[in-house]
Amino acid sequence: MLLCSLLDSPLSLLVLYSEYVMMLRVCLSRQSLNEACAAWQELECLRNRMNQLYHLHYHSLFTTVDLVRLWQACGELDQMTHWMKELDLGKRHGTPFAREREEVACGRILLAQERPALALKRVSPVLQRATAGQRWGHVIEIRLLQALAYQMDHQPTQALSALSEAICLAEPEGAIRCFVDEGAPMEVLFSKLRQGHCSIGLDSNYLDTILAAFTQQSNVHTYQSQRTEYQVLGLKRS
Fold first, then answer.
1. What is the DSSP track for 63-122?
2. How do residues 180-206 score in pLDDT, each as one tens digit?
3. pLDDT tens per residue across span 199-231
């Protein structure tokens, strides 16, 4: 009985929630979609064991954007679109930061819909608030979304400028994953930055480290795809 009560305590549930959030993000980074979906299902199970106000708070802070990324990776564009419509029609709850995360999630959905101008319009006010609040990790993410939106909207100068600003903020912490997780479009933009004059003033070693991480990630994904293909062929032969 004591063990059960401990497992259902708010602190224990929060620790479990945090662990599955980390697992979800790692699986998304590795493009291990089955494992990512399994992690999300565990988070959904935890929802039934948590105080609903706690769950709404943790979800808005930690998993709103991750859920959209999971839908996108799984090709669930209709689900993403429906979620955004429901969000815009409903009453907003939670903290200002939670609402910022929702807006960033909407920016990602608009990019997936290939509507870069609307994505830029949606995240611009969020950038101002995040910058004023010195939430630099959030600022980096928004700058990267802006870079991708400008690139999609055929505004290369603005795209490289937004990317450069993100790099300047990320370099002191040595952050790499935030760039690599944006995938092939970000790699293309990063290569343009590294090859052009826009990289002047940026740490070349840091840029090369990130580009190498893109290559490594691509090799891992190629290996995983080949392994899956071999497994499927093996099942067919058997």
1. IHHHHHHHHHHTT-HHHHHHHHHHHHHS---S-HHHHHHHHHHHHHHHHHTT-HHHHHHH
2. 999 999 999 999 998 886 677 888 899
3. 778 888 999 999 999 988 765 554 444 444 443
Class (C level, CATH) for 102-172:
mainly alpha
Residue 139: is it exposed, middle or buried by C-beta count within 10 angstroms (0-12/13-18/19+)?
Answer: buried
pLDDT at res. 232: 36
Q: What is the largest CA-CA distance in the chain?
A: 65
Question: How far, in Å, are 81, 104, 219 from residue 67 at the CA level?
Answer: 13, 12, 25
Residue tagged 């993403």 (tokens) = 80
* Tokens representing residue 111 in the block: 């990019």
Spans of all domains in the chain? 12-78, 102-172
Closest CA to 145 of 184, 105, 193, 176: 105
For the record, the structure tokens of 69 come out as 């990324």
